[in-house]
Design a protein that fits this description.
Blueprint (H helix, E strand, L loop, with lengths): L2 H14 L4 E2 L2 H4 L17 E2 L4 H14 L2 E5 L17 E5 L6 E5 L4 E5 L4 H9 L3 E2 L12 H6 L7 H4 L2 H4 E7 L5 E3 L13 H5 L8 E8 L1 E2 L3 E9 L2 H12 L5 E8 H10 L13 E9 L7 H15 L4 E4 L3 H12 L1 H9 L2 E7 L5 H15 L4 E7 L4 E7 L8 H19 L15 H7 L1 H14 L12
Parallel strand pairs: 2-4, 3-4
Antiparallel strand pairs: 1-2, 5-6, 6-10, 7-11, 8-9, 8-10, 12-14, 12-15, 13-14, 16-18, 17-18
Helix pairs in contact: 1-3, 10-13, 16-17
Bound molecules: flavin-adenine dinucleotide (FAD).
The site of flavin-adenine dinucleotide has 36 residues, from strand 3, helix 5 and strand 10.
Length: about 475
């Protein structure tokens, strides 16, 4: 640790006790590497406030000492956003001790929680009150509310409820100079100029430390059903989704995948079975829910709405889950896609991208063709949240597959995919953020945007002490 870091740690311990700062290397080690093991950093200590007041005091002490801080929640970032710099120039500030559900108000359908509350804990707490927080993702056992806010996380229910930005009513945060911003009143109307809450959502820890969040809740799920559709193309999938959306607002999930990805799951993941009998070029999983006993059961609803689309030929074949176990089996296929693809097809460059929803089918087709032409032998394909215009577009090494393909050719492939996304008016980061992984690409493709982000960052954090080296 530098003398300034050492002095900060001593002051923090003197004021808040030994638990407020971890310095044991073995305890720090697990938090120095990102989830996928791609980035490894160094940090001489992890500061751990247990309250907003402690967090604010720690930031003020860090400012006095000129010590940079890396805010960290569950460390599940997909883009290296919570990994400290490799040179040890920053300390980690972990929110994990701030894990209190402050209040759940069933009448107003809202919750107020500490930023370090883990998503699964939040789900359990609101379910116990007959309510639901309608955002979920694969990392729910580790990801924290503060991390979800700071990455504006998405997941599989964005279709109906939106991403984190749509679910946050107010934020409490420590700004880079140690000021506490209290936006927890969650005013429905507040036009006092720029919204600090909105600036903090998706800021990836570069504009301050989120300590508390007020969240919207929705009624709990009473029952659900999942349909599996066989389809000719992504365009047929989108037409099917639009047809369903025109008839009901109870569709919550709509995920697509190509036949080859389904086959990869069936051959690699034990206990999985093909949902449909025949082969279909594309597949979609559709989830519908009921939030009360009086509503038409979701399985009946899906059957009633999907049958005419099969008769018309828009959908080639369909089946609807007849039990919760079968619904879970369908979701298991979707959730196993990345693992099965990795095991079956070998190395791939992966891109979390979005384009305008209506353009996505055309983009999937044309981008795959162009990439395969430019890099003969590779295979490109996408799966995921079609209804959000967000897919995970993977380019597999295919015949070019050598052990160093990713390292040698991966960056050029990624640049090409990002160029195509940008030309289609899309985003090179739909839900995972920029972190360190996409920083250079953001600057290459959106210099004007980065110039403005930097100006905002410089005005709030002139000394660059909040999550240095990330996003901008
Ligand atoms: C298996 C798996 C599946 C995933 N699926 C999805 C998905 O479907 N959709 C999706 O959007 N994401 C997904 N993710 C990504 C990840 O879960 C989200 O980015 C999540 O929001 C990160 O939460 P976290 O607490 O782990 O944050 P961390 O990883 O600790 O931090 C993420 C970023 O937020 C900052 N940060 C964290 N806490 C705070 C805070 N309190 N104040 C200020 N800044 C903070 C960090 O500095 C960093 O920049 C997935 C990740 C995994 C591992």
């Amino acid at each position: 640790m530098t003398p300034a870091q050492q002095s900060l740690v001593e002051q923090v311990r003197a004021r808040f006790g030994d638990r407020a700062a971890i310095t044991d290397a073995a305890d720090i080690e697990p938090w120095l590497t990102d989830w996928r093991g791609r980035w490894h950093g160094q940090a001489g200590a992890i500061l751990q406030p247990s309250s907003t007041e402690e967090a604010a005091a720690m930031v003020r002490l860090a400012v006095e000492q000129g010590v940079a801080l890396v805010p960290q929640g569950g460390n599940t970032s997909m883009v290296g956003g919570a990994t400290p710099p490799a040179d040890g120039s920053a300390l980690i500030l972990s929110l994990r001790r701030m894990n209190r559900i402050r209040a759940i108000d069933p009448g107003a359908m809202r919750a107020e929680v500490d930023a370090g509350v883990v998503l699964q804990t939040l789900h359990d707490a609101v379910t116990a009150k007959g309510l639901r927080f309608p955002l979920t993702l694969g990392a729910k056992g580790s990801a924290t509310v503060g991390g979800l806010v700071s990455t504006n996380a998405g997941g599989t229910q964005v279709l109906r409820f939106g991403n984190m930005r749509a679910l946050v009513e107010g934020i409490e945060a420590i700004l880079p100079d140690g000021t506490v911003h209290d936006g927890l009143a969650g005013l429905k109307k507040d036009n006092r100029g720029y919204s600090l809450d909105q600036l903090l959502i998706g800021a990836e820890g570069t504009l301050g430390i989120v300590t508390g969040v007020r969240l919207k809740l929705v009624p709990a799920v009473h029952s659900r059903a999942v349909a599996w559709l066989g389809l000719a193309s992504p365009q047929a999938a989108l037409d099917g989704l639009r047809a369903l959306e025109g008839l009901t607002n109870r569709v919550e999930g709509f995920e697509i995948l190509p036949e080859e990805s389904l086959k990869a799951v069936l051959s690699h993941i034990p206990g999985t079975r093909p949902p449909l009998e025949g082969n279909h070029p594309w597949h979609a999983l559709v989830e519908a829910i009921a939030d009360n006993a009086e509503a038409e059961p979701p399985a009946d609803l899906l059957a009633r709405l999907i049958a005419p689309l099969v008769d018309k030929g828009l959908i080639q074949d369909a089946t609807i889950s007849s039990s919760e176990a079968q619904a879970q089996a369908f979701w298991r296929i979707r959730d196993s896609l990345s693992e099965a693809e990795r095991a079956t097809f070998g190395p791939a460059t992966q891109h979390d991208i979005s384009v305008p929803v209506e353009s996505m089918p055309r983009f999937m087709d044309s981008a795959a063709r162009e990439v395969e032409k430019a890099f003969p032998g590779v295979h490109a394909s996408g799966f995921g949240h079609l209804g959000d215009g967000n897919i995970h577009f993977h380019v597999r090494a295919g015949e070019r597959g050598t052990s160093d393909w990713l390292e040698n050719e991966g960056p050029a492939v990624t640049r090409m995919v990002h160029d195509l996304v940008t030309a289609a008016g899309g985003s090179i980061s739909a839900e995972h953020g920029i972190g360190v992984m996409k920083k250079d690409e953001l600057e290459r493709l959106s210099p004007d945007r980065v110039r403005i982000l930097r100006a905002i960052k410089a005005s709030l954090d002139p000394d660059g002490l909040m999550n240095p080296g990330k996003l901008v």
